[in-house]
Input
Amino acid sequence: MSGTAGQELPNKESNLFKQIVKFYETKQYKKGIKAADQILKKFPEHGETLAMKGLTLNCLMRKDEAYEFVRAGLKRDLRSHVCWHVYGLLYRSDRDYREAIKCYRNALRLDKDNIQILRDLLLLQIQMR
Output
């Protein structure tokens, strides 16, 4: 997991980031936002955390904020497959499948062996036919 300019988070924050992902997957969105805020308090420029906070906000129907956070995260860490994947998930949730596919392809360029990104991309490509 890469942070701002390739900088990794310290152990405590890295574990907290993993919790954000778990909170998202288990639909505990408010807890996810709290965890993201804890990381952003110490590392306000951490792109992946900004992106995950945006994805979580999207699930709480705060779409405008969600796009702001995800774009800010991507701007701070363009070389992060996580940021690109999250951006794709956001587009997919808005049914903008062409943009989602572009984002997934960018994510795959950065992490060629990521099965989850590949699965998301393939499902969308099948759906587009």
Notes: The radius of gyration is 14 Å. Confidence is low (pLDDT under 50) at residues 1-5. Residues 11-25 form the longest helix (15 residues). Helices lie at 11-25, 29-42, 47-59, 63-76, 81-93, 97-110, 115-128.
